[in-house]
Specification:
This protein is an alpha+beta fold. It has one domain. The chain has one helix and two strands. Strands 1-2 form a two-stranded antiparallel ribbon. The relative contact order is 0.23. The structure holds zinc ion (ZN). The site of zinc ion (ZN) has 7 residues, from α1.
Length: about 70
């Protein structure tokens, strides 16, 4: 996994449990994983960057999960 070091990575995290998503290169993929967790667990999830800093605007709340 040496080639993965130094690359920008995103992953989902949860505000309601200790769930941490797999790291993804693409923000959109990490965001989709966070939405999956929010949908499945009815938890508030969000996306962090490689420094574990929350991405502003990435929060996914379960009451928004009913979208088509
Ligand atoms: Zn959770």
């Amino acid at each position: 996994m040496l080639q993965a070091q130094g690359q920008l990575r995103y992953r989902g995290r949860c505000a309601d449990c200790s769930w941490i998503g797999r790291p993804f290169i693409r923000y959109s993929t990490a965001d989709a994983a966070a939405r999956d967790h929010s949908d499945a667990q009815r938890h508030t999830a969000f996306v962090v960057d490689q420094y574990d800093m929350r991405i502003v605007g990435s929060t996914v709340r379960p009451d928004r999960a009913g979208r088509a």
